[in-house]
Amino acid sequence: MPAMMAKRHRLDDTSNDTLKALAANGMLPDDMIGLLISQRCAIAAAIVAVRSSYGMTLAEAKRLIAANVHYATVHDANLPLHDALARHADEGDAKLA
Q: How far is CA 77 from CA 10, 63, 74, 81, in A?
């Protein structure tokens, strides 16, 4: 199966509890990201996991995940969609004014 088609996993609550315990025991965020990558964790689930494990803001977790070389390509590929959604939201706000 090509890399782009490989199945991505979501973390369940048990996994999140395990990740929180690893963080509490001193695992660094970069090491956790490596673990998430090794488990083929989707980028959105990785952001949620890092955020909840380390008590980060959403913006902090997104920046940390996006800066990782393995998730950067996914992040960069999503930028056009993100920009289009932001433009659409701005257009909707203008109609409400």
A: 20, 15, 5, 8
